[in-house]
Structures are given as structure tokens and as C-alpha cells.
Amino acid sequence: MLDFFAIFSKGGIVLWCFQGAGVTEPFAGPVNALIRSVILQERSGSNSFTHNALSLKYKLDNEFELVFVVGFQRILTLTYVDKFIDDVQLHFRDRYKNELEQKGAMKFLLNDFEFEDDFKSLLRDAEESGRVRNPVAMRNFTESQKSQKTVKSMIESKGESKNKAQGGKKNKNAKKDGEWSWKPALRDIFYSQNILPCLLHLYSKSPKPQKPKTKEMRVWDMGGTKTKELDYSDDKVNGSYDAAGTDTEQAEAKKGAFGGMFSMLKGLVGSKSLTRDDMESVLDKMRDHLIAKNVAADIASQLCESIAKKLEGKVMGTFTTVASTVKQALQDSLVQILQPKRRVDILRDVLEARAQRKPFIITFCGVNGVGKSTNLAKISFWLIENGYTVLIAACDTFRAGAVEQLRTHQRRLNSLHPPEQNGGRPMVQLFEKGYGKDAAGIAMEAIAYARNQGFDVVLVDTAGRMQDNAPLMTALAKLIAVNTPDLVLFVGEALVGNEAVDQLVKFNQALADHSMSDKPRLIDGIVLTKFDTIDDKVGAAISMTYITGQPIVFVGTGQTYNDLRSLNARAVVNALMKA
Ligand SMILES: Nc1nc2c(ncn2[C@@H]2O[C@H](COP(=O)(O)OP(=O)(O)OP(=O)(O)O)[C@@H](O)[C@H]2O)c(=O)[nH]1
Ligand SMILES: [Mg+2]
Q1: CA 300 and chain centroid, separation
Q2: How far is ligand 1, taken at its centre, from the CA of residue 88, in Å?
Q3: CB 3.0 to 4.6 Å from 514: which of 248, 418, 428, 477, for a disulfide?
């Protein structure tokens, strides 16, 4: 039933693998997709991933730097997989403990991991337990107890109903006394899923066993040393997380002579493996810190969850603290998220399109007032500076003044690069059909016009629309589906917080819903505007790239034509990590 099972090191060496009978498809493709889109992208909060027709589940072993991945057909509901993957992990670790404890990557290359027999026996057990858990087939009516009753027995008389009520009460009491009358199959499911202990625990009268309280740590003062401006030159991260770490140790040290001293040393020479409890309080603070920096709350939680999964079980290096380990992991992950996964080189792409005698088409979309038209004008300026001719398609036929706004930009841009200096040809032209017309139709005409007139680039301005406005979202999706632009840029304000998630999810959803092809055309890149207004609250950059997986192509840093930048991932991460 399983398509494959692979055990590989985080460095990419496959230690052992299993391929299901009759499965011919190599599993490298789906596993690579998992690594690229989930593990490297800090999306390991949930442990499943789908790739084409396959469902993949995985588990990270951070102590030995291993990844366990199982793949099976998506249509199958294999209830045993989660437990199975845990079992395989534990068994593999136990069996090869000595080999895995050797230092360096050579341990993976030099050792033979003959795991076939153990794996098969574990798989047999798991499949067996899965069968036990299969739902019991429903009885038909003739088999049911109801069919045995006569109509008379079903009519209640007054006296009987009272008795019944009492009986009911009795039953309730009986339940309180702990007389459970579950169907055995159901009970088995609960037992096998470890649910029963929790349920019994809920119903028991004894006080809940308290989770050992983590030590109180200093509450970070985020506002204390806030810098006024984003510091792009400083590569050093301010030590707020380190400070928290030191404070943790100080708090622990205060607790008492022996325990304090011991835990302080343990914190300094941390050679134990990290547990979730160790990280809990640091992660909580990190989540709050990210949210304070304007990362959407959902994304902050997912990121912290992913970091926890990545670090759980990892043996900390000597002289490292939990806080600094978690901080370093978060910092690396943030840089990773912001690094472009895909090359977006507009100048090169325009050149390629020019060689094919067609214009390069970019569509701008986003909610109202985020800076679509202004940044479109800035991008026009940048393209003109690079020697390309631009046709602006005025497809915001809705907002009063939208066309005039673009006309003003066109005039100003042409006055900065007069036609006389460019062989008498205006570098930028406006294609407009006034208001109230169908935007998709105007874009189509503009593209045809650009092709005929030999323009290098068409920039399509669209009306701002709220992500919940279904008719307007459908119209945008139609414009994109019909005109198939080379680049769909989502313009979003850096000021946005939790809204970022909703906006991007719904824009992408609308594009997918109205796409005419199997591979829907979604947002290809992001223009992050008003970056000059946010001080160091740069979290929107993380939220937006995390949701779309697409790069931030431009950053708008002001209201003049020169205020356009590309994103410096490290600088943004530094700003994010600053206290
Ligand atoms: N500070 C700052 N302001 C910006 C930036 N980009 C745009 N703006 C301002 O944001 C306001 C709205 O800009 P527009 O370009 O009209 O926004 P829009 O998205 O086209 O608006 P609609 O077409 O109405 O949806 C204007 O006042 C711009 O000057 C930026 O990077 N920084
Ligand atoms: Mg506009």
C-alpha cells in the first residue's frame, strides 16, 4: 500500500529506502519537492505534504540529523501511517545507535543500513493494527434491535416515561461512577490512538496533573532600544535573544545553591538534547516578538512550530543556550524564506521577449490604495532608464481619476526622458479607453497595440479591489486568464499585518478558481510598498513570501520615481531580530 519509504540524512545522503511492489515511479521527485517546498521553507509545522497524486508524511530526527519520509497514494486513507513512521524512527535509531553516534557525514556513507527485514515486520504490524481500526460495518434494519420490537412496545405510557426518566438519570449516575458502555471496537480505537487516557483524565475527579511550570523569564522590553530607521548596513543582530538566554540562566541560578549552580552550568555547556518544554518559553517570546514586528499571527505560530519540530531532539553544542540556539534557527529560517526560490530578472526577460518580437507583459493587482499605480510608474521609470519602451495600459476603468493619474505619470516620465533624445519616439505611452469599459478587453487591445508598435513592455494597471468582493475578483481573474501576462505582481503595503494572509490567499484562490488551465496562473511576485513608513516592523515581508512562496521583486520606499529597491533579505532579517 505504501509507494515508498526513505530514510536520509539532512545532508541528503539516502541511508535506506523501500519501494512498494509494482511502483515504478522514482521517489526522488516527490522527496525533492518536499525538501524544497516544506523543509527548507520552514513549513514543517504540519507533517504532511501532497505532491501530485502522492501524500507524503515525514518526521525529522534532529538528534541524528535524519529525515524519515513515507509516500502513498493520496486517495488512500492510511490511519496507521503516523504511528508507523514513529515506530520506524525509534527502531532505526535503536538498531543503528552506535553507527549514528559516530562523528561526521562519513558515518552515513561507510555504514550499511540493512533495515529491510525490520521494516517489513514493522509494516506488517502497522497494517494489522490498521485493519483492527477499520470502522465496523453498519447493520441493516433487519439485523437491528429496533426491527425486533413490536409497535406496541414503542408506545410510551405516562408511568413508563417517568420510569424511563429515572432510568436515564440512573444511567447518568452510572456514567459518573465510571461504568463505560462503549462498543469494544470504539474503545480499541481510543486505546490504540492514545485518546483514552486523555478522555478518562477529563472525566476523572482527581485534580489534573499539572505540567511542570517553566521558570519565569524576564519579559522582553521590545520598545526599549528601538531604532528609528531600518539599519541596512549593520549586519550584527542586536542581542535581545541572547540577553533573554542569559537572563534565563540568571533566573535559574537564583533558584538555589545546588540546583541553580547545576542548571547554570547545564545551560552553558548544553550538551543535552532539546525538548519541547525547554524551548516552549523561548518560542512563546519569539512568536510575540515576530507579531510585534508585524508578522501575521498565523505565520508567526507556524514558523515557531516549524522551528520547534526542527530542533526537538537536537543535541546543543557546547557553550550554547536554548535561547541562542532557537534564535539562530529562526534567523536562518527567516533568511531562507526571504531568499528568492526562483530567478525573477525582468530586464533579462524583457530582452528575451524583445528577441521574440513580443512585448513583456506585467499585470499589477492588489487591494485599494496600496500603491499599484505609483509603483507601476516607478517601474516604468526604471525600465526607461534601462533603455526599454513602455506602454501603460489603463485598465482601472473604475476609480475616478485613475486614468488621469497615469496620464500625468506618462507626461512626467516623457519629460524626464524626452523623445528627442530617443530618436523622436516617446519612451512611454498610455493606452486608455476611458471609464466603465471591460478591463480585460482593454488589456487585450493594449497588448495587440504594443505588439504592432514594437513596445518592449506593457504594464497593466488594474483597479484596487477588496479580496472579498467576488465580482471584482472574478473580473481580475478573467483579465489574467485571457491575457496571460508574463508576470502577475501582487502589490501589498508593508503596513499590513494579519490581513496579508487573507489578501494573498484570496487573490490566489480567485486566480486558481477562474483559471482555464490545469496549472492555474497564480501570483508570481510581490511589490512591497510603503516600506519607508514602517520603521523596523518589517514582518509583512515574511508573511507575504511565506504564504505565496514567491519572491519580493520590488520594494517601494517612497513617493518619487527613484524610490524603488530590491529586497535585501539579510537586512530585513536583521531588522526583524532587533529588539
Ligand atoms: N510612503 C510611500 N507612499 C507610497 C508608496 N507607494 C505609493 N505610495 C502612496 O500611496 C498612495 C496610493 O497610491 P496609488 O498608487 O494611487 O495606489 P493604488 O493602489 O493605485 O490605488 P487604487 O488605484 O485607488 O487602488 C499615494 O499617495 C502614493 O503616493 C511608497 O512606497 N511609500
Ligand atoms: Mg491605482
Answers
A1: 10
A2: 55
A3: 477
Would you tell me how many other CB atoms lie within 10 Å of the CB of residue 280? 15
Q: Which of 372, 401, 409, 393 is nearest to 460 (CA)?
A: 393
Whole-Å CA distances, 563 to 179, 352, 513, 556, 573: 72, 26, 35, 6, 21
H or E stretch at 3: strand 2-9
Q: Is the CB of 287 within 6 Å of ligand 1?
A: no
CA–CA separation, 569 vs 576, rounded Å? 10
Which residues, 6+ apart, have CB-to-CB distance to 77 below 8 Å? none
Question: Is residue 457 within 8 Å of 444, Cβ to Cβ?
Answer: no
Distance CA 361, CA 378 (A): 16
User: Among the residues of 5-133, which ranges form H helices?
Assistant: 28-34, 81-95, 97-101, 106-110, 116-133
Q: Residue 275: which residues within 8 A CB-CB, separation 6 or more? A: 312, 313
The answer to whether 5 and 88 are in contact (CB under 8 A) is: yes
Three-state SS for 340-407 is CCCCCCHHHHHHHHHHCCCCEEEEEECCCCCCHHHHHHHHHHHHHHCCCCEEEEEECCCCCCHHHHHH
Task: Give the phi and the psi of residue 61 in degrees, each rounded to 5.
Answer: -110, 100
Would you call 291 helix, strand, or coil by DSSP?
A: helix
- How far CA 229 is from CA of 273, 391, 545, in Å, comes to 39, 36, 23
Tell me how far apart the alpha carbons of residues 559 and 298 are, in angstroms, rounded to a whole number.
31
Sign of the alpha-carbon torsion through 255, 259, 260, 264:
negative
Using the mean position of ligand 2's atoms as its centre, give its distance from the Cα of residue 339 in Å: 29
Cell readout for 570 is 539579510
Q: Which of 507, 559, 562 most suits a substitution to test ligand 1, by most atoms within 8 Å of the C-beta?
A: 559
Q: Whose CA is nearest to atom 29 of ligand 1?
A: 559
Cell triple for 77: 486513507
CB 553 within 8 A of CB 383: no
How close is the Cα of 466 to the center of ligand 1, in Å? 16
Alpha-carbon distance of 328 to 230, in angstroms, equals 21
pLDDT tens track, the chain, 579 positions: 789 999 998 888 888 999 888 888 888 888 888 888 888 777 777 788 888 888 999 998 888 889 999 999 988 888 889 899 999 999 999 998 888 888 777 777 777 888 999 999 999 998 888 776 555 566 676 666 666 666 655 555 554 444 444 444 444 333 333 333 333 333 333 333 333 232 223 223 333 344 443 333 332 222 333 222 233 333 332 333 232 333 333 333 333 333 444 444 444 444 578 888 889 999 999 999 999 999 999 999 999 999 998 898 888 776 678 888 899 999 999 998 998 877 789 999 999 999 999 999 999 999 999 999 999 999 999 999 999 999 999 999 999 999 999 999 999 999 999 999 988 999 999 999 999 999 999 999 999 999 999 999 999 999 999 999 999 999 999 999 999 999 999 999 999 999 999 999 999 999 998 877 777 889 999 999 999 999 999 999 999 999 999 999 999 999 999 999 999 999 999 999 988
